[in-house]
From TrEMBL:
Species annotation: Leucobacter luti
One Pfam family recorded for the sequence: FMN_red
Chain ranges of the NADPH-dependent FMN reductase-like domain: 5-154
Protein name: Chromate reductase
Gene Ontology annotations for the cellular component aspect, listed alphabetically: cytosol
Length: 193
């Protein structure tokens, strides 16, 4: 059985470093895994009126439903995000909020999550990763422990073909391997391994 990993990029820009990192990371998953980008670009801003049973005159946007179903069909989520004003970009927070409702059917609940953060500066997206972990902590999503992935000075990590340098690629491969281990253990515990 192929295991499905959705990769969510916290940047909407086509040429973003986060997108380049994500495309590299997709290749690090082993046979039997299918990792693909789940776009968040077209998600309308979250509005609780869509999920409030007391509000009958609005409908849940199709984009919300499709996004939530894609998350629920995942065996794990890999987040790749830059830092924006010392936190996660608004588009990523919006996606997290959409997946967090309705209250009785949270899409994120218990899904293994991997987090790769980066910045063009020296901090490697530390603040964005910590804020993302805080937002996800409510959903009981298991994540790989140390070492966490904070990629500093991200523009310097790529060659002319947008491939990551050898040291960074090995570091991310190790992280993906640990992430895959969490997914495999969780599926085994559920009897889906």
């Amino acid at each position: 059985m192929t295991k499905n990993i959705n990769v969510i990029i916290g940047s909407l820009r086509r040429g973003s470093y986060a997108r380049k990192i994500a495309h590299n990371a997709i290749d690090y998953f082993p046979e039997g895994y299918k990792a693909s980008i789940l776009e968040i670009r077209d998600l309308p801003l979250y509005d609780f009126d869509y999920d409030d049973p007391e509000v009958a005159d609005v409908r849940v946007p199709e984009e919300y439903t499709a996004f939530r179903e894609a998350i629920k069909a995942s065996d794990g989520i890999l987040f790749v995000t830059p830092e924006n004003n010392r936190t996660i970009p608004a588009c990523l927070k919006n996606a997290i909020d959409i997946g967090s409702k309705p209250n009785g059917d949270v899409a994120w609940k218990n899904l293994p999550a991997g987090i790769i953060s980066h910045s063009v500066g020296r901090m490697g997206g530390y603040s964005s990763q910590k804020n993302l972990r805080l937002a996800l902590s409510y959903f009981d999503m298991p994540t790989p422990g140390q070492p966490e992935v904070f990629l500093a000075q991200s523009p310097t990590l790529f060659d002319e073909e947008d491939r990551l340098n050898e040291d960074t690629a090995q570091f991310l491969q190790d992280y993906v391997d640990r992430f895959v281990g969490i997914i495999d253990r969780q599926l085994e515990a559920r009897g889906n391994g």
